[in-house]
Amino acid sequence: MTINFHTDVETALRAEMVLCGRLLYERGLIVAGDGNLSARLPDGSILITPAGLAKGMLNPEDLVVIDHDGQLIRGSPERQPSSERHLHLFVYRHRPDVMACVHAHPPTAVGATLAGVSLAEPILPEALIALGPIPTAPYARTGTAEMGEAIAPFVADHDAILLAYHGAITYGSSLLQAFHRMEQIEHCARTLLAAHLFGGARPLPPERITELAEIRRAFRAIGRI
After folding, report:
1. If you count DSSP H runs as helices and E runs as strands, how many of each does the chain have, helices first?
2. What phi and psi, each to the nearest 5 degrees, are found at residue 47?
3. Cα 173 from Cα 54, distance rounded (Å)
4. In whole angstroms, what is the distance from residue 25 CA to residue 32 CA?
5. What digits encode the pLDDT tens for the residues 49-93?
6. Mean pLDDT of 1-15
7. At 4, is the pLDDT very low, low, confident or very high (cuts 50, 70, 90)?
8. Is the pTM of this model over 0.85?
9. Residues 6+ apart with CB under 8 A from 21
10. CA atoms of 103 and 158, how far apart (whole Å)
11. Are 91 and 98 in contact (CB under 8 A)?
12. Residue 57: Cβ within 10 Å count
């Protein structure tokens, strides 16, 4: 029996993307038709969620395939690729190691950007190891190439970026890893909000921050994060 590797990988990615869309919705990281997900296919094309549909209620056949210019290659004629595809494509062009991207609207984290509160401060040890500092990219108009320009200073050295007034993008070696990073952004924001309500967060000593940064570098080197 001949096994079509490309077809099997795409089938698995479609199922994983549907799962991650549902998880994003169930965790309150997206609502209605918000958010979008994508993943590289073995031939270099990009599997991506369609525009307009609720990402928590997708079927595998709803997903579409685009090229690196954002043009539709495969999919139902009734489905158009996400309007945020240029944001995803910017990441893929500048991070050949990235295999999947998730864009969502985590409410507490977005609220922090509205208030001008940064999540880049090195306070939470687990977040420092898993994500590193979380920068905030300046506001850019949704669905335009301007969004790629906004994250350009951060994309090479960060795996999670907040988008001011808008949402966040995370990426990694798999859709589940990108989803977990989005989940961690919101958890970090909620924890910092709780600290604020308790009177404010106390920073870690500089030597501990250096120690955590070294742990993160070591974990990245062996593919642990």
Report:
1. 7, 8
2. -85, 130
3. 24
4. 8
5. 999 999 999 999 999 999 999 999 999 888 999 999 999 999 999
6. 78
7. low
8. yes
9. 30, 35, 37, 49, 55, 56, 57, 58
10. 15
11. yes
12. 12
Question: Bridge partners of 100?
Answer: 39, 172
Annotated catalytic residue 84: yes
Token representation of residue 73: 């290659």
Summarize the confidence of residues 13-36 as an average pLDDT: 97
C-alpha distance across the termini of the chain, in Å: 37
The alpha carbon dihedral of 202, 203, 207, 212 has a sign of positive
Which of 10, 16, 84, 186 does the annotation list as catalytic? 84
The tokens for 77 are 């004629």
Structure tokens at 8: 């099997």
Cβ distance 129 to 219 under 8 Å?
yes
For the segment 10-25, the average pLDDT, to the nearest whole number, is 97
Chain centroid to Cα 34, Å, comes to: 13
Q: How many CB atoms lie within 10 A of CB 118?
A: 14
Name the region of 156 (left: φ>0; alpha: ψ -120 to 50; beta: rest): alpha
